[in-house]
Amino acid sequence: MTPPSRLHIGAAYYPEHWPEERWPEDIRLMKAAGLTVVRMAEFAWSTMEPSEGQYNFDWLERAIARLAENDILTVLGTPTAAPPAWLVTQYPATLAVDETGRRVQFGNRCHACVNSPEFHAAVERFVTAMAKRFGPNPHVIGWQIDNEYNRVCYCDTCRLEFQQFLRRKYGSLENLNARWTTAYWSQTYSAWEQIPLPIGPHNPGLMLEFRRFVGASYRRFQKRQLDALRPHLKPSDRVTHNFMGWFGGFDHYELTADLDLAAWDWYIGSGHNDPLAQGVIHDLTRGFKRKNFWLMETQPGNVNWAGVNNSLYMGEAHAMAWQAVAHGAEAVLYWQWRSALGGQEQYHGTLVDPSGQPRPFYQEAQWLAREFAAVSDLLSGSEVRAQVAMLHDYDSRWSIEGQRHHRDFDYVEHFTHYYRPLAARNVNVDVLHADQPLDGYRLVIAPALIILNETRVRHLKAFVENGGHLVLTLRTGVKDEYNALLPSRPPGPLAELAGVEVEEYYALEMPVPVQGEWLTGSSLLWAERLQVLRPDCKVVARYQRANGWLDHQPAITETTGGTGRVWYVGVNLDTAAQTKLITRILNTAGIPQIESPPGVEIRTRRRPDGEEIYIVINHNRSGTRVRLPWNGYEHIGKRPVQGTFELPAYSTAVLTRK
Amino acid sequence: MTPPSRLHIGAAYYPEHWPEERWPEDIRLMKAAGLTVVRMAEFAWSTMEPSEGQYNFDWLERAIARLAENDILTVLGTPTAAPPAWLVTQYPATLAVDETGRRVQFGNRCHACVNSPEFHAAVERFVTAMAKRFGPNPHVIGWQIDNEYNRVCYCDTCRLEFQQFLRRKYGSLENLNARWTTAYWSQTYSAWEQIPLPIGPHNPGLMLEFRRFVGASYRRFQKRQLDALRPHLKPSDRVTHNFMGWFGGFDHYELTADLDLAAWDWYIGSGHNDPLAQGVIHDLTRGFKRKNFWLMETQPGNVNWAGVNNSLYMGEAHAMAWQAVAHGAEAVLYWQWRSALGGQEQYHGTLVDPSGQPRPFYQEAQWLAREFAAVSDLLSGSEVRAQVAMLHDYDSRWSIEGQRHHRDFDYVEHFTHYYRPLAARNVNVDVLHADQPLDGYRLVIAPALIILNETRVRHLKAFVENGGHLVLTLRTGVKDEYNALLPSRPPGPLAELAGVEVEEYYALEMPVPVQGEWLTGSSLLWAERLQVLRPDCKVVARYQRANGWLDHQPAITETTGGTGRVWYVGVNLDTAAQTKLITRILNTAGIPQIESPPGVEIRTRRRPDGEEIYIVINHNRSGTRVRLPWNGYEHIGKRPVQGTFELPAYSTAVLTRK
Amino acid sequence: MTPPSRLHIGAAYYPEHWPEERWPEDIRLMKAAGLTVVRMAEFAWSTMEPSEGQYNFDWLERAIARLAENDILTVLGTPTAAPPAWLVTQYPATLAVDETGRRVQFGNRCHACVNSPEFHAAVERFVTAMAKRFGPNPHVIGWQIDNEYNRVCYCDTCRLEFQQFLRRKYGSLENLNARWTTAYWSQTYSAWEQIPLPIGPHNPGLMLEFRRFVGASYRRFQKRQLDALRPHLKPSDRVTHNFMGWFGGFDHYELTADLDLAAWDWYIGSGHNDPLAQGVIHDLTRGFKRKNFWLMETQPGNVNWAGVNNSLYMGEAHAMAWQAVAHGAEAVLYWQWRSALGGQEQYHGTLVDPSGQPRPFYQEAQWLAREFAAVSDLLSGSEVRAQVAMLHDYDSRWSIEGQRHHRDFDYVEHFTHYYRPLAARNVNVDVLHADQPLDGYRLVIAPALIILNETRVRHLKAFVENGGHLVLTLRTGVKDEYNALLPSRPPGPLAELAGVEVEEYYALEMPVPVQGEWLTGSSLLWAERLQVLRPDCKVVARYQRANGWLDHQPAITETTGGTGRVWYVGVNLDTAAQTKLITRILNTAGIPQIESPPGVEIRTRRRPDGEEIYIVINHNRSGTRVRLPWNGYEHIGKRPVQGTFELPAYSTAVLTRK
Predict the structure, then answer these.
(1) Which CATH superfamily groups domain C388-589?
(2) DSSP per position, B431-498
(3) Is A297 in the active site?
(4) Is B297 marked active-site?
(5) Which has the closest alpha carbon to B261: B329, B323, B213, B212?
(6) Do A191 and B85 touch (CB under 8 A)?
(7) How many Cβ atoms from other residues are within 10 Å of residue A591's Cβ?
(8) Start-end ranges of CATH 2.60.40.1180 in chain C?
(9) Pairing of strands C469-473, C565-569
(10) Is the pLDDT reported for residue A312 higher than 90?
(11) Measured between alpha carbons, how far is C341 from B486 in angstroms, rounded to an integer?
(12) Closest partner residue to B83 among A186, A199, A202, by Cβ?
């Protein structure tokens, strides 16, 4: 994780599962595959500390050294997602408690309570020892803290911590009772100790704060590890965590704030890559720190935890790796190198099989490694630049997930519904936290931004005042930061800006027809009855005959008066109409688009010198022809390209203009 | 709840959620809508008693007064469905225990154990204080005890109470063991303390008694509140509880026995009103006390707790309110007036939105209020009169629900299956407890009356001997009051009366064809092989080729000998055949019917002076023409009507004959 | 259960449910039906021991005597599946603990922990008393221990026992940690006390051992009862347990090792008999002891515990009884004689209804009894002989069930998929434990034998070396006895024998086409990419275009070099292709087959004198004509048969050659 002098390809490697005699053969095969980095040790606590205070790091040092001799660098993980049996036996309160009130069993992973003082002590002691030993190691280029945070604990310690968290935030119970409207159902709290950890449906204010508390707990836990690590690291070392894409257990912006680098683990599970929908997760992850990121794990063919653990098509993982790079990845690591003979993940895909021989997939990784090597210098330092931003907000997501109102209304799907037409037009998109300033963008889309605060309202107003184009969608501006309804019609403080307010919203049991001058379609799941507030707000489309309440009422509006524009989209359009709407908005906002055949993705990364690199990926199972509007040079095949060129199934071209 | 001098329209109102400055505007809007009553305080315990013994009733008194100044009367609820945090913290044993053995969390409602002595003490103290303060208030016309009873508790107190309940009922373990056949699976009890609260499937005798025990617990709990209330009430005050229609957690006849008035909360949830099926719930509720009832809550457009919280069509709620009145309602209250800014029900329909402005639905309520005002005097004192009774029995329902034998055989659906053709012919129906005397009816239908006792057998025999027409259906007369099989072929003690017995019953995996002289159809889910016992019992229809056992055997019979008649229907007919059968029976029994276009309901209420009021409701989304066989006067529009007249979508006419 | 001098028909009978005055009538009806045996007392503990040490056996002795007077023999059950209330109240630790950590409630059955020392003591005491009283009784011909073992307990006693079980097996934690690869996820155990009882997914080694431990616990529990019983039994008495067919809670070979006789309870539940699939369960049960077995319970029409408790067609149970006999049953007992008036199974099928009169089904039992009587002597001592063996292995099943990899891949279905075409060709099959020697068979099929050990590898090699024909299927030879992956490509130690290895396996999200010289079809759920290792291994079929990895790779192979042959089937073929493949293999192996019309089953049992008895069963709802290639004698109708003869719906012919 030195600065991106190099585009890395690697794998998770667990030398502790194998006799040391086997290591040379594995490393030979890694080198032959072209791997440049491995991640190690993130589950090896019981090997590194077989009993309290007895450290056993030599084997790991030998592994790092032998890999380095073969030009393979190391990222180390702190193994805190897998506290050993001796630890949880000696300190039973380190075990998390689940929703049913029982201590989690030992025998899987993520069984610890991240608020447990005993666990904190053990983690600090161990991570300090590990950092002292490996921090200075020149072959270790970075660290991963823990692994895929996800456990939520309901123990008494957590309950106390939650109450203290609330006390710090609200100051007084009077304030909390007011913010949460606890007069409702006699929920009034007269002592902090009365407040429960919410299991199942609860007061929306309580539920939202609990999600924030989970994030704050992880952040504090992570900070302890960072504080233990950093004094011993080299200046170039970067520290990260491998997040899980759209996983919604906590606010990832909070968690990445203290890290140097964002990273995520990309698994398809059952089925296949849907590039128009998956691309947004890369952009989401890139947006955590607004920098390039790592793909810390991805599936070599198949996983073992889905209902149907089918394999990706031959070549598909190759295209996926390039998609990650096209969206800002600096490294792609497969999980894992070789199947452990025992343990829960015996059937997960790997590069090398239990017999120690390469699997068929090995060759696909080799292919990718050759290509990465060919363009590593070209891509070094390049970044994705976008004129379109989509605003993302965990609070809004949680607010909606806690009260969907329509069981099929999903924040992530709604977000993706707006992303997909942009992706189809090969438009670079930054996914930003909703509180970010918006200078420099031409178009901002804020899907279902149900929770508003002063910061985001101020930024959005400034953006439009400065000539920006803004798309607001249904469910926007309904609530405040405490998950309470705003005492105004939606979109509340944005109504004036949008020139429109929502008289009523409707969860739909069947689609409702929508018709405008240039738009015909229907709204699914949701429809809002709009009332125009300003003369410069034009009705783009109206409902046709529906449930009576909606008939002939405005469904989509557009302000046309100022330099900037605001669309309010009170409907959830079918795919065809959505594409039409978004394309129209892109054109109005003057956003450049790139035509490409179906299934072919064309993305750009900009070099520090300003040169654009075009990454052209064929996500199809068959070859296709791509037409270039300019003469270029293809850097993998090292050949000039002009007019049309052939792109075989799942393959990639990396081009610059001549 | 003074005697029905007036047809009320109202809403649930929670002034405690709002600053007092807002009240005048809300009350102004209520008055403008035409509301005549509000229900208040049923969840306001923590506001009325912020800590033990510290009462805070002034605000409520001010609210009652201000409403009264605007001609809006008040019903008060005792807030015992929402015990405050301080109470459950001080007395932890007041919290109910769920089926998994855990105390219910604070933070929702209905979290108390209704058998808890500490809870009893707190409730009595509080209700007494509330009754003293508001009982004499002239603007308070009635009281609601608690809210939608539903919690079942599995705590140790409940277990002890259940054992004592059994001891009182059975006297000796010997008797209990015999009634429950505990020799089976060695279930013999040698001490009362051995008897468990049943979780999951258990001995049918135990399961049935537990349901009865839950009802007895609620009745005792309710009685304590009544005893605390009544000494302080005015003579005209009526006390009620808002039941939940077909909710089957306890015997509603038991619970209403001590109340002055029955009431229920009508919610559609997802989808729309099915008038032919929903009408029976009004009749059920009317039957609890054989008097007019209140609709204490109903949905203003949409709810918030269903999978898809779609809105009713514009006008649909209006037709529903009239349907309630047509079936005997004296009042219709919407839940609720205005969305609380916080709390679990933020997205529930209301008349006024979070911004404090009327929602679109407000106008529909206004429309209804105008009409109620127009006919209030006319309807005053009028009641539904019926010549047809359907016998209803919680014991039979529970017996079947505990052992459906066919997973899709549902007591309520079966009951409704018999109700629907009656409703389509606009036949008034009384739904009676199965033990009621049957004098005065011409036709009695007893669907799936699986549990027989001496009372109901005696009444049914007397009814037929006196010339009554009786329909018995499948699963009748299989069990005794202890949920034990009767040592006889079904319908057991009614076999002689019916002239038929059931040789065998069959849960069906596919429909079985049924054929008679004037009936062709098929039986779904269930079929009984009948054996005719008497020469005057005629086979109405036989099975065709089926599973071998049923082939060509009798399926439906009719006794023809005496003055009265008995049909035994051993099949569960498809809709068309069911309609044919029931129409035939109506004609044979000489029950008057009223023709109406599809979706148009015509019901009668009889005034004390004997005059019939015809309430004609168009449940369709479009207007239709209705033909009158006589000249009439329409009291809403105040105009004479003759021949055919137009009834717009979802609108209602209230007619008398000229 | 004297040696099979007689083909028994009987029923479960519970005289303790009825007043003694009723017994004579029941016994009269039994005799009229032709019953020759009853099973009694297996749930009568509370009747036989109403309080600790107070025995009440007289009633049972009277019942046995009265039955015997009517030529009806008795099998007694030990009632340990139903410990009485007094017992579990006095010794609370006898109650099992479920997966959620709660003691099982009293009130159903199987509520005891089979490792509880208190329960052991109570059982030994009671069974000894029962054995002393009834062991010498001349009318008691056998004993059933307990009833349908199935409870799994998670109490602390069980946890300690499990840890001791592991300690005995593994000797050292070092060994256990190595076998289970506990370095993975830091699962390393440093004390036996750290090892949990697995709830939900866990380390595959741990999960497999827990299944074995459950079996070992039941075996020990059963052994205690056997030791208490046997000293008091007559030499001719046989002891059995009524297993539940494919129920997979423990290794049935382990459990039957100590018994004299295997028996099972055959229930269809919902739907109807699928004879080609159900036959294998008889063969499975026969294989437990490689001897004839009893059908201890079967359904007289319908059960009460399925979603839809439909009845079997008239005659269907008759054909099923004959199917059992054709596969080696010596007795068929219906459950139960008469419906108890109370208890959980009120609606289960019986021969006599609650009124005490025969149900329609009674006549079907009577028909069967007449036929059994007619051929009892003929069948006496006859046995099923097979040239085809299918290898069955609980370890392999559990290994796959714990990690299906494809949610629809089911060991039992896969096994049945190979059995079905054999059954359609009327080929007798022995289902053997996978570790049995294979001498004497011509064809062996080993479906999904994922776990290999030295014994089974040695037997398979010897079998092929001696000219045997062997079919290996997908997922074979992947793991060792510790559920760890073998460090080799599948089928591991059988690769050389098969001449092929598996380069990669694929769980399929859609079918993959497969094509060979004489085979066209597709593979569902699973496909393996094979690599041929030996020149005498011929590719029988290859994949067509699929996911890229599989395209044109070998799918099925056959070794052709030696005297024996090995097929490796890397696919899960559609039904038509599977039939084609298996028929081809049968022909290659020279296995005799019998043609029969669809739905007609023809099975043979061989008499001690070598004569073949042909049992011809029409499983169709209509009559059909069967053609005999030889002249025969039909023993039920007592008439010669030649050429074709008519077999009515669900009826049976028992033939020998003339």
Answers:
(1) Class I glutamine amidotransferase (GATase) domain (3.40.50.880)
(2) EEETTS--TT-SEEEETT--B--HHHHHHHHHHHHTT-EEEEETTTT-B-TTSPBPSSSTTGGGHHHH
(3) yes
(4) yes
(5) B329
(6) yes
(7) 21
(8) 600-657
(9) parallel
(10) yes
(11) 7
(12) A186
Residue C562 confidence class, pLDDT cut points 50, 70, 90: confident
Size of interface A-C (CB pairs under 8 A): 160
Q: What's the angle, vertex CA B566, arms to CA B563 and CA B572, rounded to 5?
A: 160
pLDDT for C242 beyond 90: yes
d(CA B368, CA B363): 9
SS3 label, residue C103:
strand
Give the residues across from B38 on adjacent strands: B11, B74
Domain with CATH 3.40.50.880 in chain B: 388-589
Residue of C40, C273, C316, C344 best to disrupt the B interface, most CBs of B under 10 A: C344
| pLDDT-derived band at C5, boundaries 50, 70, 90 | low
Strands (E), C43-158: 73-77, 140-144
Spell out which residues of chain B touch residue C357, defining contact as CB-CB under 8 Å: 489
Tokens of A41: 């040790």
Cis peptide bond upstream of C336, omega within 30: yes
And the tokens for A237?
A: 């070392």
- A219: confidence class by pLDDT, cuts 50, 70, 90: very high
A139-145: average pLDDT? 98
pLDDT higher than 60, residue A2 = no
Ranges in chain C annotated CATH 3.20.20.80: 8-153+208-379
Residue C414 pLDDT exceeds 90 = yes
Q: Is the pLDDT of residue A30 over 60?
A: yes
Rounded Cα distance, C79 and C225, in Å? 11
Sign (positive or negative) of CA dihedral C557, C560, C561, C565 = positive
B573 and B523 Cβ atoms separated by less than 8 Å:
yes
Exposure string for B406-418, b = 16+ CB within 10 A, e = fewer: beebbbbebbbbb
Question: CA nearest C567: which of C540, C592, C594, C547?
Answer: C540
Question: Nearest Cα to A440, choosing from A473, A471, A467, A472?
Answer: A467
Which residue is catalytic, options A42, A161, A209, A297?
A: A297
Average pLDDT, chain C: 97
Q: Which CATH superfamily includes the segment(s) B600-657?
A: Golgi alpha-mannosidase II (2.60.40.1180)
Q: pLDDT band at residue A510, thresholds of 50, 70 and 90?
A: very high
Instruction: For residue C43, give the chain B residue with the closest CA.
Output: B185
Cβ within 8 Å, pair C100-A105: no
* Beta carbons of C229 and C135 less than 8 angstroms apart: yes
Residue C28: predicted pLDDT: 98
pLDDT of A4 strictly over 70? no
Segment A177-209, tens digit of pLDDT: 999 999 999 999 999 999 999 999 999 999 999
Residue A587 has pLDDT above 80, yes or no: yes
Name the residue facing A342 among C198, C205, C408 (closest C-beta): C205
* C631 and C658 Cβ atoms separated by less than 8 Å: yes
**Nearest residue to B1 via CA among B329, B276, B249, B254:** B329
User: Which stretches of chain B score pLDDT less than 50?
Assistant: 1-4
Instruction: For residues A123-127, give the mean pLDDT.
Output: 98
CA–CA distance, C160 with C117 (Å, rounded to integer): 13
pTM value? Answer: 0.97
**Contact criterion met (CB < 8 Å) for C314 and B488:** no
pLDDT digits (tens, 9 = 90+) for C348-398: 999 999 999 999 999 999 999 999 999 999 999 999 999 999 999 999 999
Mean pLDDT of A46-58: 98
Residue B550 per-residue DSSP state: S
Q: Which two tokens stand for residue C26?
A: 């029941």
Overall fold of domain C8-153+208-379: TIM Barrel (3.20.20)
